[in-house]
Structures are given as structure tokens and as C-alpha cells.
Amino acid sequence: MTQTPLVEMRDMNIRFGGNHAVNNVSVDLNPGEVVGLLGHNGAGKSTLIKMLSGAYRPDSGEIRINGEKVEIHNPRDARAHNIETIYQTLALADNLDAASNLFLGRELVTGSGFVDDDAMEAETRKIMARLNPNFKNFAAPVSSLSGGQRQSVAIARAVYFNAKILIMDEPTAALGPHETQMVADLIQQLKAEGLGIFLIDHDVHQVMKLCDRAAVMKNGKLVGVVNIADVTDDDLLGMIILGKNPITGEIVTD
Amino acid sequence: MRRLRSIVETLEIDLRLIGMITALGVIWLVFDLFTGGLYITPRNLFNLTVQTASVAVMATGMVFIIVTRHIDLSVGSLLGFIGMSMGLLQAQVLPEVLGYGHPMTWIITVAAGLIMGALIGALQGWLVGYQMIPAFIVTLGGLLAWRGAAWWVTEGQTVAPLDETFKMLGGAGGTLGVFWSWVVGGLASAAAVLLVFRSRARKIAHGFRTKPMWAEVALSGIYVGTILGFVGVLNAYQIPTRRVERMFELRGETMPEGLTLGYGLPISVLIVLAVTVAMTVLARRTRLGRYIFATGGNPDAAELSGINTRLLTVKVFALMGALVGLGAVIASARLGSAANDLGTLDELRVIAAAVIGGTALSGGVGTIYGAVLGALIMQSLQSGMAMVGVDAPLQSIVVGVVLVFAVYVDIIYRRRTGS
Q1: B419 pLDDT higher than 70
Q2: Is the pLDDT assigned to residue B418 strictly greater than 70?
Q3: Under an 8 A CB cutoff, do B300 and A89 touch?
């Protein structure tokens, strides 16, 4: 018996004007699994995932979570299903401090309904001690933080609220080697805790190292989903560049 | 110098605030010099605060508008329209329904003004937020339309006289008197000290670093000194003896020999202070305020965090509209009449006050107290130049140059501090 996938996206479609950005794509994600999403810029991988995070509404398609069909109309709906997203742009309000960003949209409030900045800062200190012990600058607006520190804030926001499904859009693109390793360790740790992770990345080596399976897209279409154990770097590159499925030999055409 | 800077840092006072207070002090001193000591007097400072009230109230709302990367050019015209409507309501409609001088007249009028402002603001906000028409265009249309509407209310006729109680909301006609002013000052001082030490207690409870005790005491001292000094100045302005005599005559009493009465806090200034506190709490301690600043800092991030930025736009404009209603109450009550040119060019004064107060047009940055101080700086310049006898055209030139210069200094400051 196979287990019920954590997430199933079935026959997803979205068009922007004449551009069929995501064309009949289906992928799924199991608990404790990391699925890499690969493809050129404009292949549709970010667009696909934004339908799951509530940033875009699909023209057609079905999303199931733990086998149940769900409607995700906006980011709030996604959060309600324990879907958390770390955007490539990080989606931080630069003028606010770390705690305000971490709790943005989900502020802790006092008994009388006012935002409780001290309590939020205390919680932020706790989670940062776990994720990035070097993080010390809690009072400054995040605009004054380094790329790695900003990334920590974005990750902390996703992890803090007990995510079951985590979407990471190029989480290491702006990071140095040391910080990249930290993110890699974190992914392993979260995976061990049973989270399902979609990892969008350009870097084939990174995907080979971190993921269990990889889904490759080209021109809005799905080239294929493969087990990392069954393929080589070159197979993945062939999927990305030529649109050639190494298992079936099929080629995605424009 | 270094010593001074370390003191300021320990007290955690906003440097921009110190800059503004310094600028205000310099302006006052210069005019005092040129007017031979007539400028820094209880009488003139009293008038300054009263003249600033209407613009200051509206400037607090403009902070939120500009922080969310919008603009509202319609506030002056809207003030005229609401002022005329309230004038008509209290001088002609309500006397017919309730009878002349009914005690409910002013309450109904003020409520109607606030509601009218909020509804019109919400309409403009809906056009901006949901229909995606740029705020500049929507409110430029509003600037023209509401001024026309203001004329239409009475076909251009000035409405007077306004309700006697209503007029007390405007200025010298409605003050608390010496005793109650001290009471308000005392309560405000106690509240300020309480807030300082409650915040300290909360920080200690969470185990955060706190300021040294002397800094908390010094801060409390500065707050209390400012509040009581302000009340003292307004109390020192004496009501003219003839007017006091008449007040006693009206009550059928004779004035005791040598009696002097101070004006104390004008009700309009009390309104400004209440609005400043309420808007500051809204900005810093509520979710709505947090979302306003988050949306201004990064609209996409706010949206992705589940914030309904469209509805937020409607709320911000509705709040602006309600504050314009309040501004209209103060402005028309001060004049004792409502004319259809009421509030002309106020949009520029209000925007200038917010911007001089450190609100960045790029969004996400601004303080309420800054806008109120900005309004006071603008008014100090204008009435100072009028007292000195500077020609009206030159006044405009000076105010224009100061506006650009203030923003320039602010930009340099931001670049240096990297914020």
C-alpha cells in the first residue's frame, strides 16, 4: 500500500494573456520528502508553486492535501493548511525589524488586543538561537542586515508556525558557502521531522545532494519526475536543456 | 560633543526629533529677535498652537497615506465641503428640527462631519485600492470636485453664525481655564511616567537589556517638563480684563478687584494632543498600524503575508477623511463661520507638514509626532513672517524653499545613517 501524498497538484493550468505559463502539470510531495523543481528561468516552476502558496489562482487544476481537495485563494488560505513559503525575494518588509517580519500577518497580541512587541522579540530570539546563533540584531530594520541574516528571518518565519509543507524558492541564491551549508543542514533536519519540502533551484548539484526526487519543467510543461537515485547530473541537465526524459526518452516540444 | 552624543544614544531619543525641535527653537529665537521680543510670548505661542490645530490633525492622517505610498490632494477641498455642510446643518437644518441653540446641535454636527469625511475618504480609497486608479489622480479629481461641491452647498453664501457650543471647539473661545489645564497636564505627566516604567518592567520581565535607571528618570523628567511647561505657557496668557468683566456681568456678578484669568489649554489643542496620542498608538501598537507600515515598506511582502492591502487602502483613506472632518470642525469653529474657500491650499500645508516631519514619499517611514511638529514649524514660519511684515509673495517663496531644504536634509541624514 502506498501512503497518501502530503500534497497532490493535478493538471494545473494558468495563463497570463497569451502565455501558457503552466500547462497541465501534475506533481506530488510525500511527508519527509524533498522534491526539487528544476528548469530555466521562465520554465514555470515558480508560477506552479505560487498556486500552492496562494499568490496565484489557477485557471484549472486540483490541489489535494492529505488526500483532501482544498481551495487556496490567497496566502492566508495556504497558511491555514500549514503551507509556508520562503520566497526568492524573501518578501520582507525592509522598514520593519526581524520580529515584526517574522510575525507579519500573525502578530502576537496582549490581552487588550495591542501588538505585543516584547513577546514577539522574545520568541524571535528563541527561534534565532536555534537557526542562526550569530543573529544578534533584533532592533534594526531588516534593510540593514546582511543577505544571510535576512534569509534567516525568512526561514524563521516559515519554520516558526509549524509548517507541514515548506516551499523554498532558491533559498541559497544570495548566500555564501557557509550559509548555504546551514540551509542544507536545516533542510535535512526539517525532512527528518517529517515536513514535505518543495525546493526550487537552478543548481543541479544542489538538487542532486538535497532532494529525493526532481521534477523538471520546460516552457510551462512537465518534462518528467525522476528519482534522484536513478539519474545522473547529465540526465537532469538533458531534461532542463533539451526537455528529454531520461527514463522514457520522450521530448517536450514547444 | 561625543559626550552629548552618548547621552542621546543612551536615552534612545530619535535624532530627527532633536533636529526638528532645534529647528523650531531657532525659528522662534530668530523671529523673537526681529519682533523685539513679541514672538516668544504666551499670547503668540497660544495663537500659534490654535492656528496649527486643524492642519496638525490632518497631517497625522496624511502620514498613513504617504507611508502606504499614496497621496491625498483632496484634503483642503474636502475640508471646505464638510465645513460648509456642517455650517448648513447647525445653522439652518438643526435649528428648524431641534430648535435654536439646542444642546445636541454641536454633537450631531460634529458626528455628521466625521461620518461624512470617513465615507468620502472610503470612496476615494476604494477607487485607489480596488479600482487601481492612482491616488494622485483620484484625489486631484477630489480637489476639484469637493471645492465645487463646497460652493454648491449654499451657492457660495457664507454660513454664520455657527452654534455657540460648536464655536468653543475652535480656539480662544473655548479653553479649559487655569485649574483644569493643570489637571490635564498633571494626568498627562503621570501617564507618561507610568508608560516609561511599565515599558521598563516589561523589558525586564522578558530579560531584555534596558536603559540605565538615570536615563529612564531623565526621560521622564523631560516628558513631565515639556508637558507642564506647555500648560504653564498657555495658562500664562491672560484673558483681557474687559472680557473677564463681561463674563461676570453676564452671570450678574461683579468682578473682584485685580482678578486675572489665564486662558489655559484650548479645546482645539486638546483635540490635537488626543489625536496625536491615538494615532501614535494606532501606528505602533495595533495590527492595523503594523500592516500600514509593512505595506508601505514592501507591498508585495505584505500581500504574501496575507494582508488585504486593498481593504487597508480603503481604511487609510477613510481615516484620513474622518480627520479632515475633525479639521473642518476646528477650522470653521475658529472662524465662527463657514465659507466655501475654507481650507484652500490646506492640502499643501498638510503634505508639507508630514514631509517636514520625516515622512518619506517612498513609503514605509514616518512618525505622527513628526507630522505634528512639522505643522507647527510651518505655522511658526508663516505667522512669524507675517508679524515681521514680510510680503505675502516672499512668504510663499520662503516656505517653498524651507520645504525643499527640509526634505534635502532628511535625505542626507538617511544616507548617512543608512536607514
Answers
A1: no
A2: no
A3: yes
Q: What length is written for chain B?
A: 419
Residue A4: predicted pLDDT: 87
Give one word for B245, left, alpha or beta, with left for phi > 0 and alpha for psi -120 to 50. Answer: alpha
Task: Please give the DSSP secondary-structure letter assigned to residue A143.
Answer: G
- Amino acid B284: pLDDT: 95
**Chain B residues inside the 8 Å CB shell of A107:** 287, 290
Which ranges constitute the DSSP H helices of A39-176? Answer: 45-53, 75-80, 98-102, 117-131, 147-160
How far, CA to CA in Å, does B13 sit from each of A21, A136, A206, B5, B198? 51, 22, 47, 10, 18
What is the Cα–Cα distance from B88 to B161, expressed in whole angstroms?
10
The mean pLDDT value for B233-237 works out to 91
Query: What's the pTM value of the predicted model, to 2 decimals?
Result: 0.91
Domains of chain A: 1-82+163-254 (3.40.50.300), 95-161 (no CATH)
Instruction: Name the residue facing B287 among A87, A107, A122 (closest C-beta).
Output: A107
Q: What angle do CA B405, B343, B377 make, to 5 degrees?
A: 30
Does B293 sit within 8 Å of A105, measured CB to CB? no
Confidence grade of residue B1 (pLDDT, cut at 50, 70, 90): low
Residues of chain A in contact with residue B281, where contact means CB-CB under 8 angstroms, are 114
Mean pLDDT of chain B: 92
Percent of chain B, pLDDT > 90?
71
Shortest Cα–Cα distance, B185 to chain A (Å): 26
Q: What are the sequence ranges of the domains in chain B?
A: 11-172+270-417, 175-265
Mean pLDDT of B166-184: 89
Q: Measuring CA to CA, which residue among A211, A155, A250 is closest to residue A38?
A: A211
ipTM: 0.88
Question: Residue B63: its chain A contacts at CB < 8 A?
Answer: none
